[in-house]
Amino acid sequence: MQRRDFCKLMAAMAASSALPLRGQTAGNALANAPAGFDALTMDYAQFCATPADERVFYALVNGQIVKQRLDNANWTPTAWGKPPALPVPGGSWDGVPMRSPIPNLAGTGKFKPTWDSLLQYEAPEWYRDAKFGIWAHWSPQCVPEDGDWYARNMYIQGQPQYKFQQEHYGPPSTFGYKDLCAQWTLLNWDPDALIERYQRAGARFFITLANHHDSFDTWNSKHQPWNATAIGPHRDVVGTWATAARKRGMRLGVTVHQARNWWWFQPSHGADKTGPLAGVPYDGDLTMAQGKGQWWEGLDPHRLYNVKHPHDALPDISYVKNFYDRTRDLIDQHNPDLLYFDNPRVPLGWAGMNLAAYFYNHNMATHGGKLEAVLNGKLMPPKIAGALVADYERGFSSEILPHAWQSETCIGEWHYQRKLYEQPGEYGGYMHPRDVIHWLIDTVSKNGTFILNIPGKPDGTIDSKEIAVLDKITTWMQINGDAIYATRPWKIYGEGPDSVKSGAFQGNSIRKLNAQDIRFTRNKQNTEIYALTMGWPENAMLIKSMGTAASTNPGRIEHVQLLGTGERLKWKQRADGLHIELPKSYHPPVDFAAALKVSLA
């Protein structure tokens, strides 16, 4: 792309951010929907500031979209949110129409907000070569050091985290999540040292959490005043990570989880059902006016907790547009190489579709016309799987997938859980580094890339047992990285008696793999095959898939090397397989897996 064309493209993309407030265009009204549905007449700040008895919501009732008002007497909070499909042209997703009522949200470029257009996507070479990334899943929810979903569960009487909240901070009617946000200090954070440690451990790219379901943005957000620059650490956390990572030549990823906030944070509007504070509203019901004289004066708690709404209320269009604006601001400010949505497909109908197209177009504009972006979504149907990189949370594939994909897990809870550190043993309650390495190998053998979360403490550090896990990963990767980086799947992913269980949240199945289970990768020239054992072989090995009579037809083997040692191996390729004896005098410092480099004639 010529410099002149690049400047024109960037100017057009910047101009498209000046969008009209009123959303629906002529001829775009939805049939069988009440007037006002999917029409942007106020922004999210105005919607949050509207008195509760004046807010209008919409829901699908008996197949029809109808208006609703909040009924406090019969209100119950939502959970994860399972919005229905709407009877609107073009369909819907997450309770939001797929067709945008607002024009020009996709930016300028070849990608449009349709699946047919997004299917032009191909995963970039850098990502397919990198194979391993480390993730810092940090937000104010790590402040209590009590694990995942603290922000929600602290408002649910009977939950262990509600009890923890009472014991350590007081009742959530007087000390709520907004107050924890101010205590996320990161006082001892050394991002350069952490990035250096993660890179030594083998990570080729780094991912940071941009926001969680709690709706707190960890960058200098233009559209969310509850952010890390204004509150808590008073730093642009995403931007600081970005500088540290890019200084060391690492790509940057960001993860966006905020779309679920519409449903997830509703318990903050409840109250105790029993006890001395029964019926006293939690702080989610506070208004901006009630902040006068408080540390949070000038901030609207509804911008953090969302407004209290009927159980089946569809996401308000102002909320959807705010999600779009915040995510686009994240893209524009930090130009991430990877954007991860913690949602099936892409979130919130037209917002997610336009963000996908905008991210691809923006990335091409900032990379001289070359698409270097990675977009993650979950539970992708096969017919649209190639439109982005499908993510399997804590899960696996049972086969080599035709498109690049991603597996992710955490060594503990996603948010820091002190109890895991306090458990006995070298690694406490964290995932054993052996399982991390096996997870990585299995994923790479099937055309995947592996992400590992290392949860951080509220002061910005990681603990000694997390470091112990990383140190073992470091040692193994420094010896065996050639079998991982810049490789591609071989003809089959592996052989052996055991296999992992396919699908998300099947992580425990990695533990049954052992030295009899072998996984394969190959170099891009297809001249070298790597055979990786899921354990250290105690006896002579037989790799059946590399025999001269094997159905894989591997070709004639010229040389076999054990990564980590220059000692000669005794090996022989026969009809029934490749026979190998590992040197008895050599044992690696970390024996989680042996990596054999098989060179073809």
UniProtKB/TrEMBL annotation:
CC annotations in GO: lysosome
This enzyme's EC code(s): 3.2.1.51
Any one of the GO BP annotations: fucose metabolic process
UniProtKB keywords: Glycosidase, Hydrolase, Signal
Keyword Metal-binding appears in the UniProt entry: no
Top enzyme class: hydrolase
One Pfam family recorded for the sequence: Alpha_L_fucos
Annotated family: Belongs to the glycosyl hydrolase 29 family.
Designated name of the protein: alpha-L-fucosidase
